[in-house]
Amino acid sequence: MTGRTLRLTSRIGRRSSPPRLRKGTTPKVVALGGGMGLSASLAALRRITGDLTAVVTVADDGGSSGRLRDELGVLPPGDLRKALAALCGDDDWGQTWSRVIQHRFQSPGEMNGHAVGNLLIVALWEQLGDHVQALDLVGKLLGAHGRVLPMSAVPLELQALVKGHDPDRPNDIDTVRGQATVALTPGEVQSVHLVPHDPPAVPEAVAAVLDADWVVLGPGSWFSSVIPHLLVPELLDALVETKARRVLSLNLAPQPGETEGFSPQRHLEVLGRHAPKLALDVVLADEAAVPDREELTDAAKERFGAAVELAPVARPDGTPRHDPELLAAAYDRIFRMHGRIGPWR
Q1: Whole-model pTM?
Q2: In 57-197, which ranges are E strands?
Q3: How many of the other CB atoms lie within 10 Å of CB of 85?
């Protein structure tokens, strides 16, 4: 065993348990999304609640996830892996395992680009034959500060109606297939839908939403990570019927392709168009990303009956990425101002 291996083993051996919060003192929170947006939200939320569940989109068809999906017919594991990594603690154990499951192999062969966590998750799916049980087991191994669930137990294909997807035909509307393609389209996304239509939701995800105190939607790729949750009928019904309060977290900047040129109000408009029955309690946005607070306030109230909360949630270095500590402070303030005064249960 090398010195490096000994040091790694020593660090892993000093695992510290997640902080234990007294039952009934923190809200039950469910966060929905995918990719880096959901990871940012989870990294913030795990700092303020001991009862956290992530519900993750399963329409990814690119990279390692897409290759495993095509070859083995499994759910794409990539966004689930990212959520688990975001829930790892800040101690040696959590940070070591976060790096391990995010590690990608580099080689001239077929293993190139595969993430360790993707392979681990798929292996447990094949061993256990149960998506939820396998993800719970990975979470236990990592010491994750929360639970990760897929929104559906069947692989989904995202399709979009896009105006100008072909630059040579700027006024034509085409059907664009696949999350990776939709995310990078140079055209204007008009709407998205899932194939198969009306996919079944994972029952544990529906139950978590119905039992939550707060549901957090976003941030993330608007058409490929946020809106897809609203296209699973049982999950949308739960979001409409739950007694939980609902907060929508807006992105820090429009995304090239999907939402280029979108104002904060436009984000609300397209979300409302896909889920006209959905109500929200709070819309959270970075104060520097809102050119017109009054317009956003009016749009949030009119479309969703929601209040607007502006807070500095971006990293100080100017990159369009959320700062976990600042985002945690914003969520904590919203939960206290707009929710019940604790204890929660």
Answers
A1: 0.88
A2: 147-150, 157-163, 173-177, 188-195
A3: 24
